[in-house]
Amino acid sequence: MHQMTLAEIARGLADKKFSSEELTKVLLARITQLDPQLNSFISLTEDLAIEQAKAADARRANGESGALLGAPIAHKDLFCTQGIRTSCGSKMLDNFKAPYDATVVAKLAAAGAVTLGKTNMDEFAMGSANESSWYGAVKNPWNLEHVPGGSSGGSAAAVAARLLPAATATDTGGSIRQPAAFTNLTGLKPTYGRVSRWGMIAYASSLDQGGPLARTAEDCAILLQGMAGFDPNDSTSIDEPVPDYSASLGDSLQGLRIGVPKEYFSAGLDPRIAELIQNSIQQLQKLGAVIKEISLPNMQHAIPAYYVIAPAEASSNLSRFDGVRFGHRCENPENLIDLYKRSRGEGFGAEVQRRIMVGAYALSAGYYDAYYLKAQKIRRLVKNDFMAAFNEVDIILGPTTPNPAWKLGAKNSDPVAAYLEDVYTITANLAGLPSLSMPAGFVDGLPVGVQLLAPYFQEGRLLNVAHQYQLNTDWHTRTPTGF
Ligand code: GLN
User: Does the beta carbon of 159 lie inside 6 Å of ligand 1?
Assistant: First the structure.
């Protein structure tokens, strides 16, 4: 039962082959049995899951239908869930029970999805390895000595290990696509403003975007359908109609113009990954796509710009965790300053503290123009590069990451080495563009992802290309041994 995709579950439920309650119990038992090896969950919500599954079964018995009605999922632990711990992977929020549901959580619950639990993540979504979580590192089901990627490493490991078919995640600089690549999943970061950020604990507000992680593009279409849409509670949400993502999956790729940026194939890219990317290009050519070399000349400046902008926004967003209103509070503060200092010093881990300091420095008087303003100008240049490219091509293709998943602990002493691994993913966030990663093969037994980017609001096109690719390849069907 645990091998089923969301699409297969929807058909099985519609055909009354099993009930949501039966499926939910099987998956909860599987999580209890297998997750101790992976550490992909921070909280399990068994009682809520059974209650939601029974309610979904009752709705189906009353004649209701829907692809998500009775479908088991989990939420990255930065989506607020009413009455349930929402930790953001931090000691700071270990005692925080959200007083309301995030819009994404509420929408998926209304569609009948069943929440099995909250997944592990890098603390406040800062990281690429899921090692900065206060709840401990997550292991990659393809090789338990390797990281699953981050910051949505818990969602990725759980779905890859077939503990559940799909999960929500968020992507500020690659946190959906990079863990998807590292664990052989399909993950989509939507256009900025497509999915509501209301109730999604903020890291870098101008870059954060929620999206689906699943095994197939078909399942990402189903989950995105439930997540996307205008939300008056989010001032950056965009009032644009949501197309039927499943309806365009079958479109032909005949004549599709795919741009391949020459800058993507630089010295930093593992040659074995470069070869797999070339294979995926050939596969898409067979399906009718036309390949064109393009250039993104400002790509080299994206990492330094991102690592100024994201920490700057984080330093502002995280100032709310002061020991006064919610979250961790130190024992016996001597005065207000002591309360702030010790609550924050005890509640935040090393990577979060590092970013708050970098961000506060970049925003301070005298440095603002040199760092923050400069980074914003680079951001515009990165966006302009994409706009020029999309005058010539329909989608852009390249690797998701320069290397496969590294060993646990390998980059702990060198944070900048980890930042450099984000080179292919952060540009989409700087520009606000939709981008998808899908399985493209293996290197030393570890999965590799191919990344696609499309113009604003063309999520349907990304899902269509990925679905056609998956109809003609079987990388996405491979299962890690032991799961
Ligand atoms: N690795 C990037 C960072 O640490 C991206 C994280 C994310 O997308 N949340 O900022």
Answer: no
Q: Which residue has the tokens 């702030």?
A: 340
Gap from CA of 173 to ligand 1 centroid (Å): 5
pLDDT at res. 127: 97
Active site residue 107: no
CA distance 188 to 463: 8
CA atoms within 13 A on the CB side of 184: 22
Taking CA atoms only, the protein residue closest to ligand 1 atom 4 is 127
The finding on whether 151 has its CB within 6 A of some atom of ligand 1 is yes
Per mean pLDDT, which range of 55-64, 96-105, 365-374, 393-402 is the poorest?
Answer: 365-374
151 carries an active-site annotation: yes
Given a contact cutoff of 8 angstroms between Cβ atoms, the answer to whether 140 and 407 are in contact is no
- CA-to-CA distance for 309 and 377, rounded, in angstroms? 11
Cβ(151)–Cβ(127) under 8 Å? yes
For 362-390, how does the pLDDT look when each residue is reduced to its tens digit (9 = 90+)? Answer: 999 899 999 999 999 999 999 999 999 99
Reading phi first (left if > 0) and then psi (alpha if -120 to 50, else beta), residue 361 is in alpha
Residue type present at position 275? E
Q: Look up residue 458 and give its two tokens.
A: 């063309």
Going by alpha carbons, the residue nearest to atom 5 of ligand 1 is: 173
Contacts by residues 337-345 (CB-CB < 8 Å, ≥ 24 positions apart): 344/92
User: What is the per-residue pLDDT for 284?
Assistant: 98
435 lines ligand 1 (CB under 6 A): no
Where would I find the beta strands (DSSP E) of 186-235? 186-189, 210-214
Q: How far apart are CA 264 and CA 282, in angstroms?
A: 17
In whole angstroms, give the CA distance from residue 63 to residue 56: 11
Contact by Cβ (8 Å): 103, 57: no
Q: Which residue's structure tokens are 């005065």? A: 335
Catalytic residue flag (residue 76):
yes
Residue 217: what are its φ and ψ, rounded to 5°?
Answer: -65, -35
Q: 252: cis peptide before it, omega within 30°?
A: no
